[in-house]
Amino acid sequence: MAEIERSVAGAETVPEDLLDAFLAYERAILSNDLDALDAWFAPGPDTMRGDDAGLLVGHDTVSAFRAQRGGVSARVIERIEHRALAEDVALIVSTSRFLAGGRGLQTQVWTRTAEGWRITAAHVSPRPKAFDRAVWRTVGDPLFQGAWQGPLAGLTVAVKDLFAIRGYRIGAGNPAYLESVKAETRTAPAVGDLLRGGASLRGIARTDEFAYSIAGDNSHYGTPPNGAVPGALPGGSSSGPASAVATGQADIGLATDTAGSIRVPASYQGLWGLRTTHGLVPRQGLLPLAQSFDTVGWIARDGATLQRVADWCLSYDGSASTENAEGESGAGLPHRFVVPEEVLEATEPATRAAFEALLGRLGIAAERVRIGDLAGYHDPFRIVQGAEAWRNNGEWLRAHPGATGSAVAERFRDAAAITSEQEHAAREALAVLKTRIDAVVRDATMILPTTPGPAPLRTSDGARVAAVRTATLRMTTPAAVAGIPALSAPLLTVDARMGPAPVGVCLASRAGTDIALVRLARELSSPLETS
After folding, report:
1. 171: which of 27, 178, 281, 529 fits an S-S bond (Cβ 3.0–4.6 Å)?
2. Would you place residue 189 in the very low, low, confident or very high pLDDT band (cuts 50, 70, 90)?
3. Contact 173, 161 (CB under 8 A)
């Protein structure tokens, strides 16, 4: 095999010891020998690796990414180009042909060290994909053309796989469910509003199974990429639409937020995400998880796009999305901000410091308020959510044992055990909590970090992911309990293992002030964008 490798076009121009190192590294890649790959990359904080997902800096950061990558497809090096950059520094550019089809390009800077040649910088251009099946269930260019004109003309939409689209089945992130249902005969109003505004349907995007997760992983289809932090979880359950928007494959994500499923992926991927007032956008044609909390909303890369969507979908004459509006969507909001102390106490130290610094930069003298123990919101929320989720899906789950991934299956098992007495007591507790939050936002806007910190790595152990999930839900459920609009804006950056990572800032206001909330968030972000 080594002799064949040495016959690659251009190999004769490479110094023999450097060619030996290059070929050994290539063999380590194909066998996914993590120890060998770590050894071939130069140690230290300056080593770099980049690809279409982003840039990694530092040997340990590169190593952490490689551990969760899972190897590369079988390939053959077809050509090598070598250039000497300086004494003991060389550039190698090689082209590869994948046995499964497609070609790639590898660029490496090699430096001679005391241990021999080592890679100090690398860039990989992988073979192009028809589409990423972890992000998309079905995709087109476009899949469906909307109106040719309107305020949303030229924008493309990734629709979470919970909404009805005429002629397509709802998949709910589960292949067995997709096979068991019939094609929809009507399109959900939330989809139709976007199409009437001129947007086009790019495709149907993945969701965590039955939307019963906030991590963004899916045991059947894989984990969509985090468009901001390579190797990190994307956040869910609106994982597909968020990743599609973050990676530039769509401009708008039509999504749902029950306990944080818009706000969390927006925070993790540096996006804008709006959870609308509960009941403002009709849920006809939406596969429910828990009707008491399920809310429709949108994800975008920038505030201007989100405002275009909100202005159209929540205010135009004849909009299907405003049939339940209370006539206050365009009202102004007072510039009085309050920060829940309990949320700050649940936030990771680096995030808390960045948030406090942000308030100072914006000149916000936010009042600190106590809203009560966050577990006191999450626990009754979880009970009502679980009871409704089991009523919605229990019959199908009993008929399809073993059809869901282990984490979702465990949540449904817990949901099945909830008694009517427990649900009744939880609903009574939630009514009191809703009144408390409504009082807080009556004449003020809550401002808080959206999540405890940046997105966890895909390689994080189950206990770590579970702990982050609980802490995150305790921060996101107060707005869900109250049914008020909540917007996550990408205003924080926090150092993480994979490098600087985004964390959202959440604004929440009284019911019906959705449009005003978007405008307020844009107003706050404006000085940060120009500084």
Report:
1. 178
2. very high
3. yes
Q: CATH 3.90.1300.10 spans which residues of the chain? A: 136-372+424-530
User: Do 503 and 527 contact (CB within 8 A), yes or no?
Assistant: no
Whether residue 316 is predicted with pLDDT greater than 70 in this model: the reply is: no
pLDDT classification of 322: cutoffs 50, 70, 90: low
* 195, 306, 481 from 148: Cα distances, Å: 9, 20, 39
pTM (predicted TM-score): 0.84
| 3-class SS letters over 78-140 | EEEEEEEEECCEEEEEEEEEECCCCEEEEEEEEEEECCEEEEEEEEEECCCCCCCCCCEEEEE
CA atoms lying within 13 Å on the CB side of residue 124:
18
Domain 2-125 in CATH 3.40.50.300? The answer is: no
Please name the amino acid found at residue 415: A
Q: State yes or no: pLDDT of 348 exceeds 50.
A: yes
Looking up tokens 């702990």 gives 467
Q: Start-end ranges of CATH 3.10.450.50 in the chain?
A: 2-125
Which CATH code fits 136-372+424-530?
A: 3.90.1300.10
Q: Which segment of 41-55, 200-214, 435-449 scores lowest on mean pLDDT?
A: 41-55
Length of the chain: 531
Residues 6+ apart with CB under 8 A from 518: 274, 303, 306, 307, 310, 487
Torsion angle of alpha carbons 370, 375, 378, 384, nearest 10°? -110
> Which 8-state DSSP code applies to residue 494?
E
Tens digit of pLDDT for each residue in 171-187? 999 999 999 999 999 99
Comparing CA positions, the residue from 504, 383, 526, 516 lying closest to residue 441 is 516
Q: Is the peptide bond before 142 cis (omega within 30 degrees of 0)?
A: yes
Distance, in Å, from the CA atom of 192 to the CA atom of 277, rounded to the nearest integer, reads 19
Question: CA-CA distance, 174 to 189, in Å (whole number)?
Answer: 23
Ordered DSSP codes for 21-65? HHHHHHHHHHHT-HHHHHHHBPPSTT-EEEETTEEEESHHHHHHH
Q: 77: helix, coil or strand?
A: strand
Phi and psi at 418, nearest 5°, equal: -70, 130
Confidence of residue 330 (pLDDT cuts 50, 70, 90): very low
Distance CA 54, CA 38 (A): 19
The single-letter code of the amino acid at 47 is T
Tell me the two tokens of residue 250.
Answer: 């769509």
- To the nearest whole number, what is the mean pLDDT of the chain? 92
Give residue-wise pLDDT tens across range 417-433: 999 999 999 999 999 99
